[in-house]
Each structure stands twice: as C-alpha cells, then as structure tokens.
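Here is the promised in-class demo. Please do not try to memorize the tokens; focus on the logic of going from shape to residues.
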C-alpha cells in the first residue's frame, strides 16, 4: 500500500490543476454517507478551500443513518451540504415506467444513481462548478458502478486508489470513524452491501488491482466482470463510414 499522506498531497495538487484548467469556480460532490464520498469531499476541501466545495445529500427512500453520516462528515470537514430528497421524483418516475415496462429489481434500483447524477449536474452547472466522482480503482476495474449514474462525473480523484488506500487516507483527513468502519454500501436497497452484491471482498479486489496473488476462483470472477463491464469504461462506439460511400 502506498503512503497515504503522499497520496493526499499528490491528489490535492491534481484537483487544483483540474479546476484551474477548466475555469470552474469549485466542485460539487454527492455525499452518500460512505467513505468514498467522504474522502473525495475532504480532498476537495484540502485542494480548493471549504468555500468552493458543495456537498449534496440525495436521499431516495434511503436509510436515515446514511443522512446522519453524511451530516457528520460535512460538519467534521466544515463544508456546506444541502439536501435534495429524490424520493418523490423517484416514485413518479417508477409509476411512469411501470406503465410502459416494469423494470427488473436492478434496473429499478439503478434509476436512483441516475437521478442523483442529473441532480448534481443541474446544481454544478448553475454554480459554474465541476462534478467530482467518487469511484475507486476496485469498483472501476470490475464495473461496480451505474453507467450514467455514479459513473457520470467531470473528474475522479479516487480512480487510482484501492479501497485500503481510501481507508488509510480517511484516517488522516478527519473522517469520522463510524463512516470509515461501516460496511460499504451503494444504498440501492435496504440491507444491500457492496461485497455481498459483487460476491467479492474489497481485500481481494485490492490484491488483484495491486498485482498480488488471489485465488483462481476470485481471479476468474474478477476477470469475468472486467470483460462484461468494458462498455462502462469506454465512450460509446462510433460507426465511422470513411470513404467507402
């Protein structure tokens, strides 16, 4: 595992360069109450100053504990957080889509992060800010994110960090321990956890993306997930006609 303080220093400088090059006035980050969004928010504050960071908490039939943890983080960091409750828009959308074609459980759940993406972009564009993504290297590698949902952002400061590195950085960034230690969850439905849904632990994913040995079974599952999620990590293929016509 790389040195956490050196990672923080490097990413702080990188964020500053991204914002400066874009001409944006600051950054918006969706605050879930989990460790990744907490660390992303902390890095933004360190790089830009608290007055140029806006956290957005977006409950959507979510656990009240998630909102409590998001508030704990924003208070600990001293950054502004606003709430946009998406429960009513989600219900209205589900009523509409049910009349067309009732979505599967996962398709219905993925509407939530897509509504959140729409919301943070509306806020960011209004303020002249960029949207900060919160995906880490483990999740991006195996495609554990929603395409055009939490995968939609302008820059991704955690994209080359293992989950273990994110945790190590969190301890240096004043993130409350209850947020660091709780089981990671995308909050898609009650009782959902990342590791249960993936069928892989973050320890195994950390090892794989770091080039360390993992079991044959875990390697096969990780590489299967990499293959089937390749489209998530690429721009849509373009049909180029060229000179044939």
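The designed amino acids, position by position:
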């Amino acid at each position: 595992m790389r040195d956490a303080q050196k990672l923080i220093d490097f990413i702080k400088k990188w964020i500053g360069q991204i914002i400066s090059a874009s001409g944006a006035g600051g950054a918006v980050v969706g605050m879930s109450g989990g460790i990744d969004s907490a660390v992303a928010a902390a890095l933004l504050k360190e790089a830009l100053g608290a007055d140029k960071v806006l956290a957005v908490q977006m409950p959507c039939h979510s656990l009240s504990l998630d909102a409590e943890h998001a508030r704990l983080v924003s208070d600990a960091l001293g950054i502004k957080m606003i709430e946009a409750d998406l429960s009513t828009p989600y219900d209205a959308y589900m009523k509409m889509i049910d009349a067309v074609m009732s979505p599967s459980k996962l398709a219905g759940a993925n509407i939530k992060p897509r509504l959140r993406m729409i919301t943070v972009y509306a806020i960011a564009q209004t303020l002249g800010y960029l949207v900060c993504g919160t995906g880490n290297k483990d999740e991006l590698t195996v495609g554990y994110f929603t395409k055009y949902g939490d995968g939609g952002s302008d820059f991704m400061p955690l994209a080359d960090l293992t989950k273990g590195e994110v945790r190590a950085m969190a301890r240096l960034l004043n993130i409350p321990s209850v947020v660091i230690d709780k089981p990671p969850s995308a909050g898609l439905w009650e009782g959902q956890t990342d590791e249960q849904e993936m069928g892989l632990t973050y320890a195994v994913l950390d090892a794989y993306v770091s080039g360390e040995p993992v079991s044959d079974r875990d390697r096969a599952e990780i590489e299967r997930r990499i293959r089937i999620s390749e489209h998530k990590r690429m721009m849509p293929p373009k049909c180029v006609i060229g000179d044939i016509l």
